[in-house]
Amino acid sequence: MASFFSDFGLMWYLKELNKKEFMKFKEVLRQEIAESGLQHIPWNEVKKASREHLANLLVKHYEQKAWDVTFRIFQNINRKDLSERAAEEMA
């Protein structure tokens, strides 16, 4: 995956979420971790994370899978436009 789509790319897309959507993103991430057996990220750390810090956490814990997780969450919170835009830019 191109280097743009690491911390900076994730952070840019997370900044596209409004405050309510960002909180929902964190809640859905919490569910994804519990349901899919992803590597655990402490909830307290996720809960208080800024967009930049959360992007760093996702890349640190999930590396290449960070975008897969992010795409699923964007779809879950009705922001398919963001996952589609990112997919187009990565193509």
TrEMBL record:
<feature type="domain" description="Pyrin">
    <location>
        <begin position="1"/>
        <end position="91"/>
    </location>
</feature>
<dbReference type="InterPro" id="IPR050637">
    <property type="entry name" value="NLRP_innate_immun_reg"/>
</dbReference>
<dbReference type="GO" id="GO:0050727">
    <property type="term" value="P:regulation of inflammatory response"/>
</dbReference>
<dbReference type="InterPro" id="IPR004020">
    <property type="entry name" value="DAPIN"/>
</dbReference>
<dbReference type="InterPro" id="IPR011029">
    <property type="entry name" value="DEATH-like_dom_sf"/>
</dbReference>
<dbReference type="Pfam" id="PF02758">
    <property type="entry name" value="PYRIN"/>
</dbReference>
<dbReference type="GO" id="GO:0005737">
    <property type="term" value="C:cytoplasm"/>
</dbReference>
<protein>
    <submittedName>
        <fullName>NACHT, LRR and PYD domain-containing protein 4C-like protein</fullName>
    </submittedName>
</protein>
